[in-house]
Amino acid sequence: MQYESDLPAVTVENLSVKYRTVLESRPTMKSALMRLGRPQQEVKYIEALKDLTLTVQPGEFLGVIGHNGAGKSTLLRTIAGILPPSSGRVQIAGHVTTLLSVGIGFNSELTGRDNIRLGGLANGFSIKEIAEKEDEIAAFSELGEFIDYPMKTYSTGMYSRLGFSVVTHMDPDILLIDEALSAGDASFRDKAAKKIEDMMEKARAIILVSHGLQTINEMASKCLWLDHGKMMGYGPCDEIVGAYEDFVAVGSSSIISEEI
Amino acid sequence: MSDPDKTKVRVYDAEFRIPPIKPYLEDTFAHLRFAIEKAKLDLVAANKNTWFGQLWNIINPFLLAVLYWFLVVVLFGAGGSIFDREGMRVLTQIVGGLFLWGLPSAAFNLGARSIIQGGSFILNTRIPRMILPISSVLSGFMNFAPSILVYLLFHALARYPFSIHMLWAFPIIAIIFLLSLGFAMMAATGTVYYRDLASFLPFVSRMWLYLTPIIYLYTLMPDSLSWTFYVNPYGGLFAAMQQILFESSSPRFSFILAGLGWSIVSISAGIMMFLRKEREFAVRI
Ligand SMILES: Nc1ncnc2c1ncn2[C@@H]1O[C@H](COP(=O)(O)OP(=O)(O)O)[C@@H](O)[C@H]1O
Ligand SMILES: [Mg+2]
User: Fold this and answer.
1) Is it true that domain A57-86+95-257 has CATH number 3.40.50.12280?
2) Pairing of strands A205-209, A60-65
3) CB-CB contact of B164 with B252 (8 Å)
4) Which among A28, A50, A209 is the top mutation candidate for probing chain B, defined by the most B β-carbons within 10 Å of its own β-carbon?
5) Using CA atoms, how far apart are residues A254 and B151, in angstroms rounded to an integer?
6) Where are the beta strands (DSSP E) in B37-189?
7) How high is the pLDDT of residue B204?
8) Which of B120, B127, B194 sits opposite A122 (nearest CB)?
9) Using CB atoms and an 8 Å cut-off, which of residues 149-208 of chain B contact chain A?
10) Is the Cβ of A104 closer than 8 Å to some Cβ of chain B?
11) A105: left (phi over 0), alpha (psi -120 to 50) or beta
């Protein structure tokens, strides 16, 4: 490998991320014209991550927990280079592949096989390399003949099974997984967990977002607990998961109802 | 591995206003294969690759051409019918121009929508977003390429000579491609901010078509208006195309030069505009 091996796989320094939303669902020229001479449209900034600092060392497995809207997906997207930081910085040493909750899905009119090809090309593999991996990916996803059907005919579970199979076969150094394990049936979940463990040996680092506290506790070597974009805890998993469970149990019922 | 991703340390810093240009363009270049495959598969997905879809691509501009021919030749009395050589030539001129207009048209239609329709792509992958408008114009090109053969058939039926000057078509098409690529990037960026641009631009494209020598010969342009071939980025290029196809002559050099100049302006402006805004795409979609 050509990167300097003493660098942390992921370095996050004072990271804040803001979404900009305009209270006007579709920005149009018409509305821009109508607005002339009148007060500015209302712009709202949602601060999804606030002043976060952490490092993931080579070989580490970071589990991320927190209730809905805590900023977990935002953190993964920023580390993946999809969302720009509003302040602070992120440094990555290695090849990142992401498995975000939406799956791969470049075009749902296309077959699973076509999407495997696009996913491979997007990750920098050649057509030839992809052809070699294609059957393995298809087999792992257990989609059977559906692999040659358009993805719009897939169930959510099939969608994420294929997504999981594609990203885990892309030889990532750094693997980012967002709530993917919750999809699929129990037997696929076991297989996926095992696949992630295998990858641990080869990958430089893994960051996993999951609602399954049990899974996180068993697999991760370190845990991060986010709440409203702020770091509530960061350290050994049994400690952090325990604190989170206490918080959820003691905390107001609003947190629990949000979870459902 | 071709992916620069695999050998580099990446930094995402709030201080960066725009992504560093050189690595960005290298990264885009490294994903060209992806753009081609996506363009191809998008056509497949739109059923354009079926036998009938392909046929429709060719029939559609052909029907339009017949309509324009009817207007130009029959209603406005330019004389001739398809059954004589003059009429056939008018039809051939219109057909050739309309086929080629498929490139600008892809830029203003597919290109404009490429980012706003790229939803899951934008939110889930890190590939340079510039790949999306590039892929749209490539789709347009893949639609256009087979129609070249159909054009050549018309060319023969109208008994236009096949001259060596027709080889100029290659550089002219390449320049039109680049020009359209620049416009596609601008249109894609603009549409993120003003969604209704996507429905407005096809109208612009249609007006632009009328201002460009396509359904009429460039020689019909009065001398007092000949400057428009230099002001309209597509004007000189389509005029040059008519010179090489219908006059069996080499193109007027200033037409090519003007087109080349415009394409450099369009590509640079397109890239700058796109890059200044691309970081915001993910938080705005
Ligand atoms: N595209 C978006 N535009 C505006 N706000 C968003 C967007 N995506 C997420 N948010 C907001 O950012 C916050 C964090 O969201 P997210 O990272 O998805 O949380 P989690 O994955 O932990 O559920 C939430 O308040 C959410 O409403
Ligand atoms: Mg989430």
Assistant:
1) no
2) parallel
3) no
4) A28
5) 68
6) none
7) 94
8) B127
9) 193-197, 200
10) yes
11) left
Residues at Cβ < 5 Å from ligand 2 ion? A 73
Nearest to B87 by CA among B77, B101, B97, B100: B77
Give the number of other CB atoms < 10 A from CB of residue B250: 15
Q: For residues B143 and B192, give the distance between their C-alpha atoms in angstroms, rounded to a whole number.
A: 26
The ranges assigned to domains in chain B are 21-284
Query: Mean pLDDT over all residues of chain A?
Result: 82
Look up tokens 């490539």; give the residue: B138
Q: Please give the full DSSP string across B227-244, using - where no structure is assigned.
A: THHHHSTTHHHHHHHHHH
* pLDDT level of residue A257 (50, 70, 90 thresholds): very low
- Residue whose structure tokens are 């342009």: B221
Alpha-carbon torsion angle B194, B200, B206, B208, nearest 10: -40
- Per DSSP, the residues of A103-166 read -S-S-TTSBHHHHHHHHHHHTT--HHHHHHHHHHHHHHHT-GGGGGSBGGG--HHHHHHHHHHH
pLDDT of residue B234 exceeding 80: yes
Residues from chain B contacting residue A49 (CB–CB below 8 Å): none
pTM for this prediction? 0.85
pLDDT value, residue A75:
94
Task: Enumerate the domain spans of chain A.
Answer: 57-86+95-257
Angle of helix A156-168 relative to helix A186-202, nearest 10 degrees? 20
pLDDT digits (tens, 9 = 90+) for B47-65: 666 777 777 777 877 787 7
